Amino acid sequence: MADKFDVIVIGAGPGGYVAAIRAAQLGMKVACVEKWVNKSGKTVHGGTCLNVGCIPSKALLETSHKYVEARDEYSELGIEVSDVQMDVKKMMARKEKTVANLTGGISALFKANGVTALEGTGKLLPGKKVEVTDHEGNSETYEAANVVIASGSVPVEIPPAPLTEGLIVDSSGALEFQEVPKRLGVIGAGVIGLELGSVWKRLGSEVTVLEAMDSFLPVVDDQIAKETKKILGKQGLDIRLGARVTGTDIKDNEVVVKYTDSNGEQEQTFDKLIVCVGRRPYTQSLLADGTGVELDERGFIQVDDTCQTNAPGVFAIGDVVRGPMLAHKGSEEGMMVADIIHGEKAQMNYDAIPSVIYTAPEVAWVGMSEQQAKKEGFEVKCGVFPFSASGRAMANNATEGMAKVVTDASTDRILGVHIIGQHAGELIAQGVIAMEFGSSAEDLALTCFAHPTLSEAVHEAALAVDGHAIHMANRKKR
Questions:
Q1: What's the pTM?
Q2: Phi/psi at 462 (nearest 5 deg)?
Q3: Active-site pick, 135, 342, 418, 451
Q4: CATH label, 352-464, candidates 3.40.50.300, 3.30.390.30, 3.40.50.1370, 3.90.1300.10
Q5: What percent of the chain has pLDDT over 70?
Q6: Which of 27, 266, 309, 473 has the fewest CB atoms within 10 Å, i.e. the most exposed one?
């Protein structure tokens, strides 16, 4: 038997590495197990988010957006740029450098905080023991007073579109294209599909997004979703709803996709096809018999509100448990669990977790949509303010979108905040903070916002709940 630890974390993604560092900061002896190996054969930390998810995709989104701005929009600002070119290989190299810097940074943080990095695949055994099998197949077993499972998730594969090297790829493969495909198909109009479709559309692909559902972004407020679809359509994304893929064929290094829609059976040929139909919890070979940890019918580890599993001293966080599959949600759960293990009274507010789609403009929300609130039985009052009436948005040449505040009409308490617009992913933090403190729309309306800023749209939306927005036609007088 090898060393015994106060805490062993299985997985070094955003949930796992944060849990490990926090536990070490609290004075506990901590180890973190990670099996991810980069192209050089080196174990790296950061999980999907840093290696093939949040960070690399945002690097490509930002680069491609700047390219479109320089090519199509700078002239409107008086900046004349001619013959703008995109070097895809250079863009990819920068993406890889960004990833390497951040994953290396986590390894440095482990050393600085005294976290023992265990390289290999972790498996939970009965009695809070963890077996770690290295890449050569050698195993070592460690004991822990507490175990935190943070094994993350993997892309869902679908039988009609089996992954085929270089042609039919998942979200990870879509981050590795070395040239712009002329015709790109995307299965799934969710967050990942829209982001990746946007990247390659900006760089010159003809992008068709096939979504099996009849509704667009059903998790988003209807008004915001409708505006998002309109804007992305104007940008050239061909989003087809009610399009269920039934099969794919590879012919002459092209992908022929068969799908059905309201008009019957259809067929379309692409140079590349990205499958983005969601993610599933990763529990393969994770749990030995007799651990006491239970899975639900969808493969998620069952936990309570504090991420405790059915087995005493064993916790699970992040994508492998219920709730939205978001890096920041996993990180906050990691902090909470580390504090609980240390004996603190910690909890997490799952009603105030923000979500962001990093298209341009960005889409962000927290709390309930107008439709969700009504379904929950609330009498709802909403305030909406368009960025077209924002001085800073006009100055930025970014007037698309709006901010929306959803409230309980009887108490004025904020139930949700929804934004589509430039930097919505940053602005939504104001809504998160407001909801975390149980704010009313009046609280936001009475708060002084800097001028000129995009955040004033949130202020005006709060004022608009009672018809008192300043910079748009009012419906009410005091």
A1: 0.96
A2: -65, -40
A3: 451
A4: 3.30.390.30
A5: 99
A6: 473
